[in-house]
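Forum > Structural Biology > Help requests

Title: Can anyone predict the 3D structure of 23583_t:CDS:1?

Hi all, first post here. I have the sequence for 23583_t:CDS:1 but no way to get a structure on my laptop. I'd be grateful if someone could post the structure tokens.
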Amino acid sequence: MPNAKEVTAAKVTRAQNCHRYYGVIVYVRIFRGELVKRQKVKFSRNQKVYQVERLGVKIPQEVLKEKLGTGEIG
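Reply #1:
Sure, ran it for you. Structure tokens for 23583_t:CDS:1 below:
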């Protein structure tokens, strides 16, 4: 992924959801860097590249954001 912003891997929890309209929802914690909407991400387990379509946090309701930074969980 040339020119991609580096995010030291977000820790992915096993609590993945499958939403009726949005598909698979993955919860992550950003340890360093930032994750931005429409950014391409590569999963280390299967080496597949995906684009971030929606980004947000739950506090307890869902709040959409343009980016997640260091220390955030979304």
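Residues 11-69 form one domain. The two ends are 23 Å apart (CA to CA).
Shout if anything looks off.
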